Amino acid sequence: QQPVQSPQAVILREGEDAVINCSSSKALYSVHWYRQKHGEAPVFLMILLKGGEQKGHEKISASFNEKKQQSSLYLTASQLSYSGTYFCGTEIQGAQKLVFGQGTRLTINP
Amino acid sequence: NAGVMQNPRHLVRRRGQEARLRCSPMKGHSHVYWYRQLPEEGLKFMVYLQKENIIDESGMPKERFSAEFPKEGPSILRIQQVVRGDSAAYFCASSDTFLGAEAFFGQGTRLTVV
Fold first, then answer.
1. Among residues A17, A58, A69, A92, which one has the fewest Cβ atoms lying within 10 Å of its Cβ?
2. How far apart (Å, rounded) are the C-alpha atoms in residues A21 and A88?
3. Is B42's CB within 8 Å of A87's CB?
4. Average of per-residue pLDDT across B8-29
5. From start to end of A4-83, where are the E strands?
């Protein structure tokens, strides 16, 4: 039931764009995105509910393709502060729990 | 509005002792998740609780681990007879409902078993 994230790691220069993908083999009710910096707690970014909506604020946005059970997180014009590990969490229809993928480590270099 | 509070932040236990980890959810939240995270690894689901009920404990080891969320007071994750393999960061998260609600994380408890 654990979602699969890709890629596992990304290295960018400041100002470049990145896309992180999250896919599930089960029908999803929602997808949650979090960012965790080393030694800190995961921080909530956004949640997408089934219905194929897209959300975003400033330069971070996400989409949810309900037919494919996939979500993508888009980071545009990346900043140094975007560095960290990004986790997607999924709620499967009929199961009441939030399960996370293995994470994508994003490194932004000056 | 205080966030999710976990204590202690750091806990050292000798092998065979008991560890009690506490989690006070955000005000108004009645749903609590517990996750375990090993260094450089992901968040492994352990248990999902509502007030006075365990909803899903499929991620909990069958022995030595238990969790509760009483009507009054914090949620407790209890590990009996700790072993070195229990050393990890334990995070709790809370939400105000199930399905489709934002879950907010506490700062975690770093358990070290010596």
1. A58
2. 9
3. yes
4. 97
5. 4-6, 9-13, 18-23, 28-36, 43-49, 54-57, 60-65, 70-75
Query: pLDDT tens digit string along A78-98?
Result: 999 999 999 999 998 877 789
Q: Do B108 and A47 touch (CB under 8 A)?
A: no
Q: What is the mean pLDDT of residues B86-90?
A: 97
Nearest CA in chain B to A102: B42
d(CA B71, CA B76): 12
| Range from A73-77, A78-82, A91-95, B10-14 that averages highest in pLDDT | B10-14
B58 contacts chain A (CB < 8 A): yes
Whether the CA torsion A36, A7, A4, A62 is positive or negative: it is positive
Nearest-neighbour CA in chain A from B103: distance (Å) = 7
pLDDT at B103 over 80: yes
Tokens (6 digits) for A41: 């707690």
d(CA B37, CA B40): 8
User: pLDDT at residue B70 above 90?
Assistant: yes
Q: Are strands A84-92 and A28-36 parallel, antiparallel or unpaired?
A: antiparallel
Q: In angstroms, rounded to a whole number, what is the distance separating the alpha carbons of residues A47 and A55?
A: 8
pLDDT beyond 90 at A75: yes
**What would the two tokens of residue B60 be?**
């909990």
A87 touching chain B per CB within 8 A: yes
